[in-house]
Every structure is written in structure tokens, then in C-alpha cells.
């Protein structure tokens, strides 16, 4: 069995008008239902400002899921995009606000530059909204390409506008 880390994020209501937090919870349930994978752990939910900053974009809800199982990268990416599409995700322009964003952060330590998905996620180490929740589900994680523990990656982050949400 291999460990898989998936980042979950949203800052727009889903197609059924559910708030972003509810959309993220629904995505977590959809991840848990993926064939051949099991949900091992989920972080708390975090609220963060958009990166890059966008004054007209609502704040994001973020979390990380730890899954176990075997998955081929392209097939897993397709499954995540199907979950996003079912939630009503559109891609009008880069970094657009979204009803759901699911990113493969790490797939069993695999390092690859092509084809998609690039692994590990090429910007995960720069994003507090990924690293803080990731550290909750796997505090001993080491970035497969940079060979740095998550604690060192967090320590190297510039200040970012994020906070954990209270349990719901």
C-alpha cells in the first residue's frame, strides 16, 4: 500500500449553493469512496487568503487527505478531475476562484516532471495552506524532490494569511 496526499480547496459555493466548507467535506467523502483507496486521515479545515493575492476573490477553505492504496498517476488525476467537475468546477483562467480544487501533493514518493500530473506537486512546498494541514496528517513527511521534512518547509515559509477553523 502506498501513501497518497491530496490537497482539497474551495472558495466558491458548489453548484447546489453549498458553502465552500460543505463542498470540501463532500469532496473528502468522494475521495474516501474512490475504488482501491482508503481514507486514513484528514486534517482540520483551514481558511486562507488567495495566493496570489486577489482582492476580488473570497477566502479559501483548505485541507489535506491522506489516502492509502495503489493508484496510477494519470488515472488518479482523472478521478480527481471527475470529482471537481461533478462539483461544478470550471477553469476560466489560471488561479480563478473555484468551487473545488483537488491536487495530488504526493503519490508514494514518486518524482516525475511529465506527463501530468507533475509529482510531487510543484508548488506545494511554497503554500502554507497545503503544508500546515499536511503536517497534521503526516508530520514526518519528507518532500520527495527537496528531501526536506514538512517542518523545515513550514519554517521556511514567508508569512501567509491562514488560520485553522474550529471543529464543526
Task: Identify the notable features of this structure and list them briefly.
168 residues, alpha+beta, six-stranded antiparallel sheet, 4 helices, 6 strands, 26% helix, 23% strand, globular
Characterise the protein shown here.
This protein has helices at residues 20-32, 73-87, 128-137, 150-155; strands at 2-10, 37-42, 46-48, 60-69, 101-107, 162-164. By secondary structure, the chain is of the alpha+beta class. The termini are far apart.
SSE blueprint:
Layout: E1 2-10, H1 20-32, E2 37-42, E3 46-48, E4 60-69, H2 73-87, E5 101-107, H3 128-137, H4 150-155, E6 162-164
Antiparallel strand pairs: 1-4, 1-5, 2-4, 3-4, 3-6
Helix pairs in contact: 1-2
Short structural description:
This protein has 168 residues and is of the alpha+beta class. It is built from four helices and six strands.
Can you tell me the overall shape? globular
Average pLDDT over all residues: 93
Percent of residues in helical segments? 25-40%
Distance, first to last CA: 31 Å
- Main β-sheet description: 6 strands, antiparallel
Approximately how much beta-strand content do the residues carry?
Answer: 15-25%
Count of runs of 4 or more consecutive helical residues: 4
SS-derived structural category: alpha+beta
Please count the beta strands (DSSP E, at least 2 residues each): 6
Q: Give the SSE order as H and E letters.
A: EHEEEHEHHE
Amino acid at each position: 500500500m502506498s501513501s497518497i496526499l491530496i490537497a482539497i480547496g474551495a472558495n466558491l459555493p458548489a453548484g447546489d449553493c453549498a458553502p465552500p466548507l460543505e463542498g470540501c467535506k463532500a469532496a473528502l467523502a468522494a475521495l474516501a469512496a474512490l475504488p482501491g483507496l482508503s481514507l486514513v486521515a484528514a486534517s482540520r479545515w483551514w481558511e486562507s487568503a488567495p495566493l496570489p493575492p486577489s482582492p476580488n476573490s473570497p477566502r479559501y477553505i483548505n485541507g489535506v487527505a491522506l489516502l492509502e492504496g495503489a493508484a496510477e498517476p494519470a488515472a488518479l488525476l482523472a478521478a480527481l478531475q471527475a470529482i471537481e467537475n461533478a462539483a461544478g468546477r470550471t477553469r476560466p483562467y489560471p488561479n480563478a476562484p473555484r468551487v473545488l480544487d483537488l491536487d495530488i501533493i504526493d503519490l508514494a514518493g514518486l518524482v516525475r516532471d511529465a506527463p501530468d500530473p507533475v509529482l510531487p506537486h510543484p508548488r506545494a512546498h511554497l503554500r502554507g495552506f497545503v503544508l500546515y494541514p499536511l503536517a497534521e496528517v503526516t508530520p514526518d513527511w519528507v518532500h520527495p524532490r527537496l528531501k526536506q521534512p514538512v517542518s523545515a518547509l513550514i519554517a521556511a515559509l514567508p508569512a501567509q494569511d491562514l488560520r485553522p477553523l474550529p471543529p464543526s
